[in-house]
Automatic annotation (TrEMBL):
<feature type="binding site">
    <location>
        <position position="81"/>
    </location>
    <ligand>
        <name>Ca(2+) 1</name>
    </ligand>
</feature>
<keyword id="KW-0479">Metal-binding</keyword>
<dbReference type="GO" id="GO:0042744">
    <property type="term" value="P:hydrogen peroxide catabolic process"/>
</dbReference>
<dbReference type="Pfam" id="PF00141">
    <property type="entry name" value="peroxidase"/>
</dbReference>
<dbReference type="InterPro" id="IPR019793">
    <property type="entry name" value="Peroxidases_heam-ligand_BS"/>
</dbReference>
<keyword id="KW-0575">Peroxidase</keyword>
<feature type="binding site">
    <location>
        <position position="85"/>
    </location>
    <ligand>
        <name>Ca(2+) 1</name>
    </ligand>
</feature>
<keyword id="KW-0964">Secreted</keyword>
<keyword id="KW-0732">Signal</keyword>
<feature type="binding site">
    <location>
        <position position="87"/>
    </location>
    <ligand>
        <name>Ca(2+) 1</name>
    </ligand>
</feature>
<feature type="binding site">
    <location>
        <position position="205"/>
    </location>
    <ligand>
        <name>Ca(2+) 2</name>
    </ligand>
</feature>
<protein>
    <recommendedName>
        <fullName>Peroxidase</fullName>
        <ecNumber>1.11.1.7</ecNumber>
    </recommendedName>
</protein>
<keyword id="KW-0376">Hydrogen peroxide</keyword>
<keyword id="KW-0325">Glycoprotein</keyword>
<dbReference type="InterPro" id="IPR010255">
    <property type="entry name" value="Haem_peroxidase_sf"/>
</dbReference>
<feature type="disulfide bond">
    <location>
        <begin position="46"/>
        <end position="126"/>
    </location>
</feature>
<keyword id="KW-0349">Heme</keyword>
Length: 299
């Protein structure tokens, strides 16, 4: 990928940290407006904040290279529900159902302990200063950088949600089997267009998915015990060895089999050769002429 195109993709991924801020007033705590956000927000109140976050991300990645993708995904799932307000981190209570119980997150979202450790360290350094919502935004950037992606300035000053939105988490976050129109609609509701959709799904250049999320493509795509015709046959055969028709549902497979732990454009190259793992990935190249052209551009 040309350097310019890499920057386009990363600019779109960093956009996740910015676009929902206008919706943060749906939470119960006073929140910052977009105008009050600044990369220098903690320069005086907690000058070591970003360095502390970076050190914990580095350790988490060293202990478990999968964690970078998990942390990036955690931020994305937070931002698609009432904005980037940290609501995905809230636990169940007598009056609230946690977003951790939603279909996209249950037994799937991970990295909460990393965020807890970062928050604890920041509380020791500068009590009651850095929001969990901002921690998630910084962590997403640092997880991208540590896997080989470019960096960007993170605008800070968010306030944390006091309430979760289980329904929003179930409804707003695209699923692995979403159609291109469904995904486009969900992104549109967040103020994002097709270009944003394609670029942001490029975050699947790192990370894994479980067999159960794509098994239907291998064995029963249209309900007739058939293989998804948009799936490369050799790639499908490789997947079938570890994702059997019966069992193996929890086995993990790289979203980008070519370079699973390196941030880059191989995700898009894979789509061009019909080697996208999830249906919601491959349809970017097969179900929309406009999204196909964007995939070609980023590849």
């Amino acid at each position: 990928m040309a350097k310019t195109n890499v920057c386009i993709v990363l600019a779109k991924i960093s956009l996740v940290a910015l676009f929902p801020l206008c919706m943060c007033n749906q939470t119960n705590e006073s929140t910052s407006t977009t105008a009050s956000l600044s990369p220098q927000f903690y320069d005086n109140s907690c000058p070591k904040a970003q360095a502390i976050v970076q050190s914990f991300v580095a350790k988490a990645y060293s202990d478990d290279p999968r964690m970078a993708a998990s942390l990036l995904r955690l931020h994305f799932h937070d931002c698609f529900v009432n904005g980037c307000d940290g609501s995905v981190l809230l636990d169940n209570s007598e009056t609230m159902e946690s977003e951790k119980r939603s279909e996209p997150n249950q037994n799937s979202a991970r990295g909460f302990e990393v965020i807890d450790d970062i928050k604890s360290a920041l509380e020791n350094e500068c009590p009651q200063t850095v929001s969990c919502a901002d921690i998630l935004a910084i962590v997403a950037r640092d997880s991208t950088v540590i896997t080989g992606g470019p960096s960007w300035e993170v605008y800070l000053g968010r306030r944390d949600a006091r309430e979760a939105n289980l329904h929003g988490s179930n409804y707003n976050i695209p699923s692995p089997n979403s159609t291109i129109q469904t995904m486009a609609n969900k992104f549109y509701l967040q103020g994002l267009d097709l270009t944003d959709l394609v670029a942001l799904l490029g975050g699947h250049t790192i990370g894994n998915s479980r067999c159960t999320r794509f098994k239907q493509r291998l064995y029963n795509h249209s309900g007739n015990s058939d293989l998804d015709r948009s799936l490369n046959k050799n790639y499908a055969s490789m997947l079938q060895k570890g994702c059997l028709i019966s069992g193996d549902d929890q086995n993990l497979f790289a979203l980008d089999y070519a370079r699973p732990t390196k941030f880059g454009n191989y995700y898009f190259k894979n789509l061009v050769t019909y080697k996208g793992l999830l249906s919601s990935d491959e349809i970017l190249f097969t179900k929309s002429r406009d999204s196909m052209e964007l995939v070609k551009l980023y590849a």
